[in-house]
Amino acid sequence: MIKAQDLSEFHQTPNPSQSRAVQMTETVSACSFIYTDWALIETQFDPAQLHHKETVFTIGNGYLGSRGSFEEGYPRAVAATLIHGVFDDVPVVYTELANCPDWLPLMITFNGERFRLDQGEILAYERRLDLRSGLLSRAVRWRSPSGSKVDLNFERFASLADEHALGVRCQISSLDFEGLVEVQASLNGYSENKGFNHWEQVSQGKADPGIWLQVRTRNSRIELGMAARLTVSEAESAIEVSNVPGYPTQTTTVQLSPGQSVTVDKVVTVFTSRQVPDPIQAAQTKLAELPAYPDLFKANERAWEETWRKSDVVIEGDISAQLAIRYNLFQLIICAPRHDEQVSIAAKTLSGFGYRGHVFWDTEIFILPFFIYSQPALARNMLTYRYHTLDGARRKAKDSGYKGAMFAWESADTGDEVTPRWALPTDPYGADIRIWCRDREIHISADVAYAIWRYWQVTRDDAWMRDYGAEIILDTAVFWISRVELNTKDERYEIRDVIGADEYHEHDIHNNAFTNRMVQWHLEKAILVYDWLHAHFPENAAQLEEKLQLTSKQRSRWQDIVNNLWIPYDSKTGLIEQFDGFFNLEDIDLREYDSRTQSMQDILGMEGASKRQVLKQPDVLMLLYLMRESQEFPYSLETLKKNWNYYAPRTDITYGSSLGPAMHAILAADLDLSEEAYERFMQAAMVDLENVRGNADSGIHAASCGGLWQALVFGFGGVQLTQDGPIATPHLPPKWNRLKFKLYWRGDWHEFDLRADAKPPAL
Amino acid sequence: MIKAQDLSEFHQTPNPSQSRAVQMTETVSACSFIYTDWALIETQFDPAQLHHKETVFTIGNGYLGSRGSFEEGYPRAVAATLIHGVFDDVPVVYTELANCPDWLPLMITFNGERFRLDQGEILAYERRLDLRSGLLSRAVRWRSPSGSKVDLNFERFASLADEHALGVRCQISSLDFEGLVEVQASLNGYSENKGFNHWEQVSQGKADPGIWLQVRTRNSRIELGMAARLTVSEAESAIEVSNVPGYPTQTTTVQLSPGQSVTVDKVVTVFTSRQVPDPIQAAQTKLAELPAYPDLFKANERAWEETWRKSDVVIEGDISAQLAIRYNLFQLIICAPRHDEQVSIAAKTLSGFGYRGHVFWDTEIFILPFFIYSQPALARNMLTYRYHTLDGARRKAKDSGYKGAMFAWESADTGDEVTPRWALPTDPYGADIRIWCRDREIHISADVAYAIWRYWQVTRDDAWMRDYGAEIILDTAVFWISRVELNTKDERYEIRDVIGADEYHEHDIHNNAFTNRMVQWHLEKAILVYDWLHAHFPENAAQLEEKLQLTSKQRSRWQDIVNNLWIPYDSKTGLIEQFDGFFNLEDIDLREYDSRTQSMQDILGMEGASKRQVLKQPDVLMLLYLMRESQEFPYSLETLKKNWNYYAPRTDITYGSSLGPAMHAILAADLDLSEEAYERFMQAAMVDLENVRGNADSGIHAASCGGLWQALVFGFGGVQLTQDGPIATPHLPPKWNRLKFKLYWRGDWHEFDLRADAKPPAL
């Protein structure tokens, strides 16, 4: 085992020239991308990949995310700027993140011919996302329909230094064009969620200088103010404002000759009434104070440098994996709320309309570890979001006939349950499909408790646990008392009618091992928290007892449930049965379906899959992974091996849930199944970059991003936690020369620099 | 009885000066309206009535309808232009009429101050809808926030002479304003159905002169082209085009001094790919050919004159009723397809989003009689729509496990069933309500047959019956064979599990008298049509038999069902039981609820209402009305009297269905219940004008409009049909001096000029 180094020199900046050298020499191309160590480069434009690439090239700053649609638009483009917490009502799924006014539009017209990629000819093209600074750039050499040749160099960023500031730049160069270039810079108030525009126009006008737009969501009545200023360098030119309703625009016209260039900068500010009482005033004030584009970008670069200092991961010997891990972490960083504890990361981040901006267990179980171990303040923001949604969780419990707090399977602004009840077909004769997760996938409450416990273990943030965490853990524990059932015949507690982690089995699922053990674990920790609070903060304990109507009676019920909750583990075989009767279901050999391109549920039908021993995603194995970090029951390497051999071959790891591959990568690494571990790791790493599942158009797979980091640290790094801090037992994939990352642990940073040649000692 | 006069001089124009005299002398004001004989006048602007008045001031031309929203916009306005047949997909309700690009926008700015009614001060205001010419005008004297006084006189029309041509005009006069007036005339491609924009932008540009916009529906892929041209009179002024995406705009600027005026005209053309293969080309070509605004309006005026010549109704002595009947007929005329037999009139016409542009029995039973008797070619268009949707009706039958054609309760472009299955709450814990009409309200198929028969009886249009009508009547009759059940114990046919006309009773409704008798009647007529076709058009009969797989076997089944279908009529009491067991339900005395302002279903709950003898709308009485015209079973004045006395007091006529009042007015007139008849008549007449039910914002109550005409003709006029044509037995309300209307009957026009002083002979 390699002991983590406690490096005081950690805070030094990485050597940029060295890193640049790698970028220059080692590149890999796939899916029309070139991967370098810090940049993702697209070398040709393929309209068939329009929506996939819009997702991939999402930028953001923890306040908003903006998809990589073009400044000049494109037919059927799905442009989106999503801001944390800006929810509005929508039928069937209750609420969704409203697509905010588009700050990107920049229309460039050459003697009346508007630049657009679906007309004229693309002579050269490169789009590049620089992960180190969050800069998205695009270079296009374009021949207009009438034959003029021009170069356009766009770039944009959302400032990580100032979350209300955004920048777009375009350098326009003439190769053989002679004439007038018109540049229209607009704010587009007609942004839409797949056709639906959540905004009412309130007002708009001229800023001094610039333009502004004030809008309000239809139902939730959130106001948004956006302001923008166009500037032109290298030319004297008048800028005019036009005020078509909902589309304020600044226009300038410049004479251009061959060999000449002009650069236009558009800086934008945005606020909502979630931050300030008068967002349009705030946007205009900030716009007036904003520095010019270059200085704005410099501040952003510095903020990114600071962020990567804590969160970067280095892989040597595998440039695809190196780029992919940085890319996946980049996507998590840009959607993590930095200054807002009333919001959290949604399943599809701020990058697309999938799952409507709703928050799932994905956040606590898959995404949060990266933040807990590298930017714990952001992890705390997201856990505090759960605290602020406790009232919604209480309403849900009450509506379902239970006590305490029962977290929503899908959670939005209030914490009320917003999982749709129905999937409704467009075919008027198709069957409506009832979605049962809201009713049955109850493990979410234990998942939240798990993340809180982990955060507390890593940070020792007792103040937060006292003020926020304890109330969450205890009131959800109160819920479990009302949810478990006492089977008097077998003298045990049971939890019936659930959906476990594996969603292929929805009906009549009783005593799901994952759920039952997570609940038992939750109650074990609730007792510890309860006792700790009493011991250290008796006043807070008393207040909380009054608020939650807690007495020692509940504590003893928790203990009774912990002692008697049925966990279907067979100590003779070491096998854990996924739920009552799982082993009696018809068996399946997935090798017979090797050539498929669909999920097993698509192939067998919902009922067909539910009657077979086929899993959408790890369930027993997921439990073993979660119990692995602190080596708790039922985790042991032996148990893992037995259950891996049983469940892994029965799991739809290719087309089932995107949550699966990274988890399998960790466990396979644990079991020294090096090839399998690497294959699963890359499957997770490429889910968005290479659109492995064909659904990247609807947004980043955030759980997969977070799982990837865990696979790297806990799988290939083999990190486990001890009383002395984290220790590593590396299982590096064959071609990796080096794996370097750092972890925060109780006030210190632990840097791990794992080398392929440093053979780990035998276990 | 007064025999209808067969007037050859009928085609003379009414004396305009005489009519004008009435308008000048007799007016009534209500709900901030002044009613004259031909004009509806609003004398003050009340933002609280914004959406109601937008509906009321809808104009149209049988091709499109445009709500009465303001040219300059208003916060939270619900602007809409709906074009027949332009459906697009939408969740839950499958498909809806897409709100088309808005042709109205005209923004007028005085020295930078934009004219808008929510700012500045309204010094004088009048909005007027001239029913005789379809011209909507608005005169506003406005003081701008900075104090300038100006007059604005807007007017608009959708040409009835050329359904692809529209016009907007504004005369701008300065009272004390000195400075620049900027006028922006736009096409707005961001129109929306309550937030949802069905359109993809395809292209846009400059016309010569003018602007154009090309869009396409997202899913149904219907293309729409719109073009517009702004002209300025009384001033020389340059007109510029700006091309913000989705919002092409022409702008002109004029210098204005006190006492000066300028008039701007905007003429607009619109086509969709439902009419022409290249709609944007067609729109531009027509725009180039279009005459100036005044000539365009003259042609429209002539077309309206021609239409009213056939359809006008004169009431003397009651100006509210006079205006109301013309207003209601106006609303029917402007939504009746004149050149398209693939579409029909929706429940809310083309005036709002209620019921999403879907077609119900409202059309055949309530609306069509007006057209059958006054503009039969339009009635034929709408019945032919049902022919074109037969394949959808066949798919519905097949999906439901039946044979033949089963018409959709809600029908759109294909005729497939588009009634939503669910009403979904916005409250995440609210109950989803299953809507059963699609499954159970099956009388629609007999209603269509009824309308076809009536059309045939009135017009003797044998060619249409041969080519279209027969197939509808026979294939729906095939459906009934598969739908009825044989009760062998009682040796009778039954129809179980239906919803009748009364929608307060939805579950376990068997042998609804209305449904059973309508089916029996339908099959009686099917046999007649079958025999008629064989006798007169044996070749067509043979073709149809092959197509529908009809043999004499079906004919004898029809006869057997006619003979043995159970009709719950008690010849001893003369009472018809609404359905099996209705008389056993808990009784109710609606007088105890006199002060209510809600429907009885709102008060009692869905289940509460279903367990009581309370009706949403006439059911047995509806049947009696439908059998009245040709005096068929079970209609007789005696039966009517008995059933009226039973059912009328149990019907929620105030807050139940808006389909009820006009029907009750007819039957009350029949029974010489003069006061009741008039009260019900005015209740129907004012449903939209006075927003009697509080839901006029979502569109015109078309069935009520059509029912009103029937109440006038068949109720107060007492018209019945005989072999010699229609005869009248008037029951005029006390204050009416005269009732004048005309009916088409088998090639001739019959004018009825009924006077209060011409006492009808005793019955």
Which pair has the most extensive contact? A-B, 41 and 41 residues
Low-confidence stretches of chain A: 1-25
% residues in beta strands of chain A: 15-25%
Distance between the termini of chain A: 8 Å
Largest sheet of chain A: 11 strands, antiparallel
Percent of residues in helices of chain A comes to 25-40%
CATH superfamily of one domain in chain A: Glycoside hydrolase, family 65, N-terminal domain
Folded structure, characterized:
Two copies of one chain form a homodimer. By secondary structure, chain A is α+β, with helices and mostly antiparallel strands. Chain A has a domain of 264 residues: Beta-galactosidase, Chain A, domain 5, CATH 2.70.98. In chain A, the strands form seven sheets. In chain A, strands 2-3-4-11-12-13-14-21-18-17-16 form an eleven-stranded antiparallel beta sheet, with helices on both faces. A five-stranded antiparallel beta sheet of chain A has the order 10-9-15-20-19, with no helix packed on it.
